[in-house]
Write a structure and sequence with these properties.
heterodimer, A: mainly alpha, ABC transporter involved in vitamin B12 uptake, BtuC, B: alpha/beta, six-stranded mixed sheet
């Protein structure tokens, strides 16, 4: 069992482990809605659009989460408004904002000295550099997200499954839609240090898609997704520690491997059966 | 007497029709964009005037593009007409939450991870209230609603595991759980085999004591004639509205369908068209 416990003597590993589990749970739970509502491209785009906010916070010495949160929420709302107008197709509107914001982030970052190293941290995460303060921020944001998902469970379910019923029940569907976008933005912020901008999408959709092959009920889909997300975080970190590979990539690879196994062997619905 | 859930203090005016449309016209541009995206063809309605009384069941027939779906969405308060007035129990439909709209089958994601009971429970969203979980009474109502459409034993099945006819019955059960006064069904019989169609129509018959007003869009003239109190023949305008025998005349059908008269689903001749 030493191989399990040895890494934990390092404080930064323990913090990384807590962060990975936390992010695995929060991303995967919210990810069920991303998968069910077909928002994968939106989620990926949103992750990229927070780069300028993160860079500005970084250059000004603020907590990264603050900058990320502001740009994340602003672009979530901005994309919502652009697509509400109906003049542009949704994926076009998202694409324009996504690449434009990402370019702004790169431009801002290129003004600083350690351009390539910093960019790599933002893009692919810096799991081993998680501080205690970072952990508290993640815990706070993650708890807020999970609590919101719990409190508005039946409303989110309704607007996702049957928007027309939501309309005839005169529910404020737009409010819930924007709330969901904001939740996704907040969750991306928590995932930033663990897997980074470029890999964040995987934590949303891979465990949730895996869970969708194993169950036909939303609550259990959320539970299974959260379990797979947490396990991927732990296993990925150990993989990273012993094989000396990038931690964010290792976490995503574990999640992807689990998906492939389930996709092949899922009882009754897998590729083999 | 059934308790009616009210919304924003809207009570139902006594002795008013369930639905009262006066000179309702709707042009393409005014259709709500978010919902319009899902329409393949959104049609204008011209000067639609009719009333539907509590408990009345009306079939709406007309060719593709006649505006059947649009009319149902206007009745549901989802589309606002450009001119004319729509009243439900004396108030505009968007002030009511006792309307059940059953969408076309293609508009639902049947792979969605919800059970039959979950879908029916969605009808209780307003009664349960914000930040609350379904209570014992809600679960009892859901189960009772499913029993009424003979679907109680399938409550725990995922919605996609059911046959098309069973899925329609789940949506009728949801209307019951919602305590709807107006049930709007957009081509619920399309794609169903004969026995499933019969079962769905029998359940609509069993709603009679509840005084639920039903508006059902269909392509099947035979069903419309045999099973409904009145038939509305629609082609942007109301071509004819009344008892089947008076509505389904050769002249009326030619006016709505432009010369082509559709056959009944079961292969028999169209409903006996009398001249005049």
């Amino acid at each position: 069992m030493d191989w399990l416990l040895d890494p934990l003597q390092f404080g930064f590993i323990t913090r990384a482990l807590i962060a990975a589990v936390l992010v695995g749970i929060v991303c995967s739970t919210l990810g069920t809605y991303v998968v069910l509502r077909g928002m994968a491209f939106f989620g990926d785009a949103l992750a990229h659009t927070i780069l300028p906010g993160v860079v500005i916070a970084f250059l000004l010495g603020w907590p990264l989460a603050v900058g990320a949160l502001i740009t994340g929420v602003l672009t979530a709302l901005g994309i919502g408004v652009l697509t509400d107008q109906g003049e542009l197709k949704e994926d076009t509107a998202i694409g324009i904002i996504f690449v434009g914001m990402f370019a702004l982030g790169i431009a801002l970052l290129s003004t600083s000295g350690n351009y390539t190293i910093d960019l790599a941290h933002f893009l692919f995460g810096n799991l081993l550099g998680v501080s205690t303060t970072d952990l508290w921020v993640m815990l706070g944001l993650g708890t807020a997200v999970l609590l919101t998902v719990y409190l508005f469970y039946k409303e989110f379910l309704l607007i996702s499954f049957d928007p027309i019923l939501a309309a005839t029940l005169r529910l404020p569907a737009s409010f819930y839609r924007y709330l969901l976008l904001v939740l996704i933005a907040v969750t991306i912020v928590t995932a930033l240090q663990v897997v980074g901008i470029a890999l964040a999408l995987a934590m949303f959709i891979t465990p949730a898609a895996t869970a969708s092959l194993l169950t036909r009920r939303l609550p259990s889909m959320m539970g299974i997704a959260a379990g797979i997300g947490a396990f991927s975080g732990i296993a990925g970190l150990y993989l990273s520690f012993y094989m000396n590979i990038a931690s964010g990539a290792a976490v995503v690879l574990v999640a992807t491997l689990i998906f492939l196994i389930v996709f092949t062997f899922a009882p009754g619905r897998g590729w083999v059966w | 007497m059934k308790q009616t859930l009210t919304y924003r203090g809207t009570s139902h005016k006594p002795d008013t029709p369930t639905l009262d449309m006066q000179e309702v016209s709707l042009a393409y541009a005014s259709v709500n964009r978010k919902l319009a995206k899902r329409e393949t063809a959104v049609n204008a309605l011209e000067k639609i005037t009719f009333q539907a009384e509590p408990g009345e069941q009306i079939a709406i027939i007309g060719p593709n593009g006649a505006g059947k779906s649009t009319l149902l969405k206007v009745a549901a308060g989802l589309f606002k007409p450009n001119s004319g007035s729509v009243k439900m129990f004396g108030y505009t439909p968007d002030r009511h939450i006792c309307i059940a709209y059953v969408p076309q089958r293609s508009e639902i994601d049947w792979q969605f991870p919800v059970t039959v009971a979950d879908v029916v429970m969605m009808g209780r969203t307003r009664q349960i209230g914000l930040l609350r979980r379904p209570g014992k009474r809600d679960r009892e109502i859901v189960q009772a609603s499913l029993e009424r459409v003979q679907m109680g034993h399938l409550a725990r099945k995922q919605i996609g595991e059911l046959s098309g006819g069973q899925q329609q019955r789940v949506f009728i059960a949801r209307a019951l759980a919602l305590e709807a006064n107006l049930l709007l069904m957009d081509e619920p019989l399309a794609g169903l085999d004969g026995p499933s169609q019969e079962a769905t129509l029998d359940i609509l018959q069993s709603l009679r004591p509840d005084k639920v007003t039903v508006l059902l869009a269909t392509h099947d003239l035979g069903v419309a004639a045999e099973r409904f109190d009145r038939v509305m023949l629609l082609y942007k305008q109301i071509v004819a509205l009344g008892p089947a025998a008076a509505v389904l005349t050769t002249a009326n059908l030619a006016a709505a369908y432009g010369g082509y008269i559709p056959a009944s689903k079961n292969g028999t001749a169209p409903y006996m068209a009398t001249s005049g």
